[in-house]
Write a structure and sequence with these properties.
The protein is mainly beta. The chain has a domain of about 150 residues. Helix content is about 5%, strand content about 40%. It has 2 helices and 31 strands. The strands form 7 sheets. Strands 1, 16, 18, 19, 20, 21 and 22 form a 7-stranded antiparallel β-sheet that branches. Strands 2-3-26-25-24-23 form a 6-stranded antiparallel β-sheet, with no helix packed on it. About 55% of the residues are buried.
């Protein structure tokens, strides 16, 4: 999330013009839990936002929020201060006897300048000079916080990641800094596994075979165990789309440490995905090429020699999730001024591993059919009641927008700030990490800065 769409829109003169998209929204939900409930939310979503008398979060009528955790407060474990820069997050199911629990695992995208570092904890710290990491919250069915503690520390720029089929979180470092850079004592740019129920079970072990690069997100094929990875490279040479073939696929907690093969996607005859802007465009015979040096000891992976046919790049590959029998990934924007072959405000791609077919599903842009009022859509999640929830990342008022399967856009939440006891114009940082509880009754979302985690409940299936 470090480089946002607001930068590119300001350069292109489109700031404030709104983002829109073309493509078949229904394709995004195939085979997912959302697909079973697509008819529950009407064409226009919920009622208009109601100003919050406490000046924190405006929501539609009938909805309410609870603040679960705030930057600068004390961690309930007593390990230190709640860290800064709340980013990617997941909600995992848990049980304690007959009680239903939810485990939230929350990234902290901290650089060396972060105000509050993730506290170092023995056995959970990778690099004592790294300020990033994850914290884990356990909630009861009423969203009361039962515990809050450090889950991993000493990492750097933990942006996004993805859940595993066995109930852990894979947190991704969005950096390529090596030991000796920015004061770090170890190389960074890895994926780490985090067990929210017992963080010491996973510790702080980099999954080195999965590559060292500017990781953003991952998604795991639940049948084959293949892990798909995105690379959020903003400047040329742009990032690649990867797959990791584990030696112990679907082996459970710690199995990814056994190693495997890292490969990058090659679309024959397509060196750059940015010029492809017609939804439905399909490429057959997708190839996967072994990465010569996954640890990037001397050369960043995206600059390595992939043979005479080259490799396929894309600017700012971010979100990644599994739906049905396919993996979906997002290129958040491309701009020719930065070296891309063409401009766009975002693409969503679908790869079908069975047919080795890549399809462009959605294109964001200023001249398409459905207008999104926000200037910079970022984190996206599938809502259990149907449609998408989109976190805005831009200037001024910050929103979580809902998008129905019919393409109707509505405001779901708006951040506000209290200055001197008086609610002011929304000036908080962007929203991030939107996710839903396993039962679909609670939306969890972060405010990036000042770091705040909210639980939002209400008539989701109205």
């Amino acid at each position: 999330m470090s480089a946002t769409r607001r930068q590119i829109l300001a350069r292109s003169g489109a700031l404030g013009a709104g983002i829109a998209f073309t493509g078949a929204l229904s394709q995004l939900f195939a085979g997912t839990a959302a697909a079973q409930n697509l008819g529950h939310v009407g064409h226009t979503g919920y009622s208009p936002l109601v100003p919050d008398p406490d000046g924190l979060l405006d929501l539609p009528e009938g909805f309410r929020y609870k603040v679960l955790s705030r930057e600068g407060d004390r961690l309930r474990s007593g390990e230190g201060i709640v860290p800064s820069n709340h980013d990617g997050m997941t909600a995992l199911p848990g049980r304690h006897g007959s009680a239903r629990l939810v485990h939230l695992v929350r990234n902290h995208e901290n650089r060396p300048t972060a105000k509050f570092a993730v506290p170092t904890v023995a056995g959970l710290t990778y690099d004592p000079e790294g300020k990033g990491g994850c914290t884990a919250l356990t909630l009861d069915r009423h969203n009361n916080v039962l515990s809050e503690r450090v889950a991993i520390a000493g990492t750097a720029v933990n942006c996004a990641g993805g859940p595993s089929p066995w109930g852990t979180w894979l947190t991704c470092e969005e950096t390529e800094d090596k030991a000796g850079t920015s004061g770090y004592t170890k190389d960074h740019g890895f994926i780490f596994e985090v067990d929210p129920t017992d963080p010491h079970r996973t510790g702080a072990v980099p999954l080195t075979a999965m590559g060292r690069f500017q990781h953003e997100a991952i998604a795991i094929d639940p049948k084959r165990g293949i892990v798909y990875e995105t690379e959020d490279a903003f400047l040329k040479p742009f990032g690649l789309f990867y797959r990791f073939l584990p030696d112990k696929p679907l082996g459970g907690v710690g199995s990814l440490r056994a190693g495997g093969r890292l490969q990058a996607m090659r679309v024959p005859g397509v060196p750059d995905l940015s010029p492809i802007q017609e939804p439905g465009t399909t490429f057959e015979g997708i190839e996967w090429v072994d990465v010569p040096d996954p640890l990037a000891a001397r050369t960043p992976v995206r600059l390595q020699d992939f043979g005479p046919k080259g490799i396929t790049h894309a600017q700012k590959l971010e979100g990644c999730y599994w739906g049905g029998r396919c993996v979906y990934f997002v290129s958040s924007f491309a701009h020719s001024a930065e070296g891309s072959a063409a401009d766009h405000f975002g693409q969503i791609w679908r790869y079908d591993p069975s047919s080795r077919r890549l399809t462009l599903v959605i294109v964001f842009g200023p001249d398409t059919d459905v207008q999104l009022p926000g200037e910079s859509p970022d984190n996206i999640c599938l809502a259990p009641s149907g449609g998408l929830m989109v976190c805005e990342d831009g200037n001024g008022a910050q929103h979580v927008f809902g998008v129905t399967r019919h393409g109707e856009v509505y405001a779901m939440a708006r951040g506000r700030q209290v200055i001197g006891g008086t609610p002011q114009a929304p000036e908080w940082g962007e929203f991030a990490g939107v996710t839903f509880s396993p039962d679909g009754q609670t939306m969890f979302v972060n405010c990036y800065t000042p770091g705040t985690t909210f639980a939002v409940t209400g008539p989701w299936r109205r």
